[in-house]
Design goal:
- The chain is of the alpha+beta class and 429 residues long.
- It has three domains: 1-133, Killer Toxin P4, Chain A, CATH 3.30.430.20; 134-291, Gnk2 domain, C-X8-C-X2-C motif (Killer Toxin P4, Chain A), CATH 3.30.430.20; 321-408, no CATH class.
- Helices cover 38% and strands 16% of the residues.
- The chain is built from eleven helices and eleven strands.
- The chain has helices spanning 3-21, 45-56, 62-66, 92-109, 153-173, 204-221, 265-276, 283-311, 328-333, 337-350, 361-369; strands at residues 31-34, 68-73, 80-86, 116-119, 123-128, 140-146, 178-185, 191-198, 228-232, 235-240, 399-405.
- Strands 7-8-10-9-6-11 form a six-stranded antiparallel β-sheet. It has a five-stranded antiparallel β-sheet with strand order 1-4-5-3-2.
- Strand 4 and strand 5 form a beta hairpin.
- Helix 1 packs antiparallel against helix 8, helix 1 runs antiparallel to helix 11 (361-369) and helix 8 (283-311) packs antiparallel against helix 10.
- The structure holds 2-acetamido-2-deoxy-beta-D-glucopyranose (7 copies).
- One 2-acetamido-2-deoxy-beta-D-glucopyranose binds at residues 58, 96-97, 100, 104.
Length: 429
């Protein structure tokens, strides 16, 4: 068995074990908005209309074609309008279950409110007593970002800016799904993935205007940040350094030769963190998962080094400075100093303080597989003595959030740390 395959199976089994010990919680909403447009009373006509409309969503056949649901029930003043939207890359099944979750949760989150909206990573649901169908709403906005800075913020902003403006027109011009996703190279190891989407009931021009407004929020809040998710009622935008969306089934295969289902543990931890945010005692579990991810990366490298040592024959090519780190027994016994130093190098890359500059597991496998690839110089590791990052959260991708409602005279922005507020319970006034 060759080393990359060995590493792959090791990660696969580890991933499986981690998933066994970690109960999968229902996804938490990214954002919840109960409007101030008034309350209805239990058993009123409005309440009955609303229940009928909401309960029709999970079974709606509209969803099968375009991942979009729009409907209206009743007569003025008890008429209810609703919109549901799935992220453009999602299959019908995961979209259904996301909307089904929203239906259950939205009336609990906003009891007796005539208008409410709820956003998840995978779907969005809104209902109101006003006509929200085919109406662009780009005023209210909510943005959440990863606190980690890119290593070169200027360069990162350039790449993100180009990527985002390049996706604007394809998203707006989309037919049944106004959705576009794309990827750009930041460094040779790090890519930036982005997607933009509008509700398909608005016009091409309105979608473009909504996305422009979202991009303004992104440049305000997410300047140089390695991840950002920004919403408005009519459109959403997100970019990350991991591939958070799925490629369409007929897409050309990725350029980098990757082992088929890459179990990227760090990404799993990232999702876990963002979906669990707000719950105090979830923190320790997230830390443990991330620690396991990092430990597994280091462990794989160590394992592979061990195998190299056992297998390689004699060859008296002693490496340079790094060879002092190697046990004299290994040095005397094995000729694969270059390989061992390369393993140490990869190990150092995996423990860099800036999470964003660490290679993905797929890249590590590639580096181990092909010795012709030049490795970047590692920066300070996370556990370096003079860390600039809060020692309590050395490895977390922290998120902050901001809201802006430009439909009102003042524009509010809020900056919350993990301890202070849960996103889903934030109500802008
Ligand atoms: C609507 O109900 C909520 C509690 O469910 C209450 O806080 C709010 O003041 C009410 N609004 C109006 C306009 O009655
Ligand atoms: C609503 O209607 C149900 C059944 O018709 C009844 O049991 C319940 O008490 C009513 N609730 C209110 C608040 O009127
Ligand atoms: C929606 O969720 C409920 C439980 O919360 C479940 O009973 C129902 O089958 C689900 N419907 C669909 C269409 O997934
Ligand atoms: C829903 O949107 C479609 C176009 O996207 C439109 O043809 C249809 O009339 C809308 N339904 C309602 C109830 O407004
Ligand atoms: C990120 O950069 C900004 C300045 O651009 C700085 O204020 C902030 O402290 C940095 N955050 C981290 C986590 O390094
Ligand atoms: C950041 O990247 C730009 C090019 O995009 C380069 O001119 C600049 O020197 C870089 N800054 C650092 C600190 O590496
Ligand atoms: C990104 O880099 C890969 C090689 O790592 C290259 O094949 C690809 O064309 C680049 N993509 C863009 C958009 O520059």
């Amino acid at each position: 068995m060759d080393y990359p395959r060995l590493a792959f199976w090791f990660l696969f089994i580890l991933n499986f074990l981690v998933s066994l010990t970690t109960p999968q919680p229902a996804p938490r909403a990214r954002y919840n908005r109960c409007s101030t447009s008034g309350n209805y009373t239990t058993n009123s006509t409005y309440s009955k209309n609303l229940n009928a409309l909401l309960s029709s969503i999970p079974a709606s056949s509209d969803l099968n074609s375009d991942g979009f649901f729009n409907a209206s029930i009743g007569q003025n003043p008890d008429q209810v309008y609703a919109i549901g939207l799935c992220r453009g890359d999602l299959a019908v099944g995961s979209c259904h279950s996301c909307l089904n979750n929203s239906v259950q949760a939205i009336t609990q989150a906003c009891p007796n409110q005539k208008e409410a909206s709820r956003w998840y990573d995978h779907c969005m649901l809104r209902f109101s007593n006003r006509n929200i169908l085919s109406t662009m709403e780009g005023g209210f906005g909510f943005t959440v970002w990863n606190k980690a800075n890119a290593t070169n913020q200027t360069q990162f902003n350039d790449v993100v800016g180009n990527l985002l403006s390049g996706l604007r027109d394809p998203a707006a011009a989309g037919g049944v799904r106004k959705y576009a996703a794309g990827v750009a190279n930041y460094t040779s190891l790090l890519k930036i993935y982005a997607m933009e989407q509008c509700t398909p009931d608005i016009s091409v021009m309105d979608c473009g205007r909504c996305l422009d407004a979202v991009m303004t929020d992104v440049s305000t809040y997410c300047n140089g940040k390695v991840g950002c998710y920004s919403i408005k009622p009519s459109c959403v935008l997100r970019y990350e350094t991991n591939q958070f969306y799925q490629l369409p089934a007929d897409a050309p295969p990725p350029l980098m030769p990757q082992p088929a289902p890459t179990p990227v543990l760090v990404n799993a931890a990232y999702e876990q963190h963002s979906s669990l945010r707000g719950g105090g005692n979830n923190k320790s579990r997230t830390l443990i998962i991330i620690a396991i991810s990092t430990a597994s990366a280091v462990l794989v490298v160590v394992l592979i080094c061990l195998f190299l040592r056992l297998r390689k024959g004699k060859q008296n090519n002693v490496g340079r400075t790094g060879s002092n780190l190697i046990d004299p027994i290994l040095r005397a016994d094995s000729g694969s100093i270059r390989d061992i130093i390369r393993c140490i190098h990869i190990g150092l890359l995996c423990v860099q303080e800036n999470v964003a500059s660490r290679p993905t597991m797929a890249s590590v496998v590639l580096m181990l597989n092909s010795f012709s690839i030049t490795l970047p110089l590692p920066s300070e590791p996370a556990f370096f003595m003079h860390s600039s990052i809060d020692p309590e959260f050395p490895l977390l991708h922290e998120y902050s959030s901001g809201t802006k409602d430009s439909s009102q005279s003042t524009s509010k922005s809020a900056h919350f740390s993990e301890n202070e507020a849960s996103i889903s319970e934030l109500h802008p006034r």
